[in-house]
Amino acid sequence: MFDKLEEITIAEQQQAEGFTHTVNVCMAAGCMSSQSGAIKDALEEQVKHAGDGHWCRVRGTGCMGLCAAGPLVSVDAEKPNEVMYQNVTIEDVPDIVASLDAQPVERLSLSTEIPFFRRQKKVVLENSGLIDPERIEEYIARDGYTALLKAITEMSPADVIDEIVASGLRGRGGGGYPTGLKWTTVAKSDGETKYVICNADEGDPGAFMDRSVLESDPHRILEGMAIAGYAIGASQGYVYVRGEYPLAVARLKTAIRQARRANMLGSGIGGTLFNFHIDIRLGAGAFVCGEETALIASIEGKRGQPRPRPPYPAEYGLWGQPTLINNVETLASVAPIIRNGGQWYAQFGTPTSKGTKVFALAGSIKNTGLIEVPMGTSLRDIIYQIGGGIAGVGDCKAIQTGGPSGGCIPAAYLDTPVDYESLSALGSIMGSGGMIVMDESASMVDVARYFMEFCMTESCGRCVPCRVGTVHMYNILDKFSNHQATPHDLVLLEKLCDMVRNTSLCGLGQTAPNPVLSTLRYFRNEYMDSMVPNSNGVAQESEMMEVAR
Predict the structure, then answer these.
(1) Which of 130, 125, 8, 13 lies closest to 60, judged by CA?
(2) Is the pTM of the predicted complex or chain greater than 0.90?
């Protein structure tokens, strides 16, 4: 079977060498919303009229990363003479085609030497923007499915798990649980049937990491799931993806069909006795279904509500069977680890947070987009080097990480390394990778209210602390936003945060107070300034002490 992959790789390389130029057009959702599909069609038409059809090929690729500059077009990617164009329109197409054997179009040029590109380390995103996500041949030509064949023909299931353990990979969905330990638990669990689930229910505001990976490199997820299935003894996998991601779903379906035809999924994979099938299940947009037990209930056709744990899904999951659940980024890291070895992956990052992390940069920052950096990279480097600095009013005021479950980190901590432990110490979390940058015009009270409104709306309602507590917290925050709050409200807000965090059933409720607690910790003065003033014209801390008593 390795020979077949080699044949496909050679054929792809020969085909590429038959063209003088290759023009890549970003066809991820962000650029497509800016008409990159029409730009690709216009390029193909222009190339057809300008030559014999063999001097240049035009192809659609996945996300190239710098969403702020989209639509993006790359000419001769990965060659010394690579040229990238930004903010391309249909009117620019004739000039781009005319420049292929001449000088680049200066007004559109985007240097690939800027820190945004050079300061990244791509493992999960190594193929994004460089291959056509709808052609399995291009994935195979970049070592695709070699890790799966290596696992099922040269390694035992225990060997595969050992490499994942050695890599130090931790779950990229938010909790940071050691991936190797989770795989080991499921592998050792008793059960005639086991399942692998890819959690692609990405619901954090400002987050688009999973969507971009699914749109740009879907075979990477399928290969990771199949390797996981082999390691734990499963023959069935499910991708649980948000229904709001139609492009990702369409490309996943195409990838599954192609992988089956290529004998990389289905029965007798690679001529071995290993069987693994993958199906897609669509979520209806409930944020709570990102929680493992709620996700399982949804796949089973039930209402997406969490259940008490233990038992954990690793022992009692889908239809009562041992189930492995990893998110998109975690599974996308598996193939490179098996291909290159666990120690190779462990060389990146910090002693306790190994590898790389994908982030979705959003907010008041110049270079919004998708990035991947080694764990331990400082917030300052991400914002001012890769991100290009603040695009809004004044300087950076705060960075919100971890979505509704995360916290707001003030600019005073910009030199903090981005890893699980450092962010937790500041009252935030890594989360799945959303990173929202706020300038000095941002009201931290309004930020806390926004995330509380999100949690209140998304609460499944099963437990009283979350169902009722988030509503009361939102109402109090609304009073602060409208300058109607009193010292009593601030004391009550802090008590509610403690109650909701410690008594809610699942992670949604348990972490819902985090944005409030972090803004109270670092921006308490904004809450004080939002209170109804007393007779002296200010809200006194002593009044709150008296209320607390």
Answers:
(1) 130
(2) yes
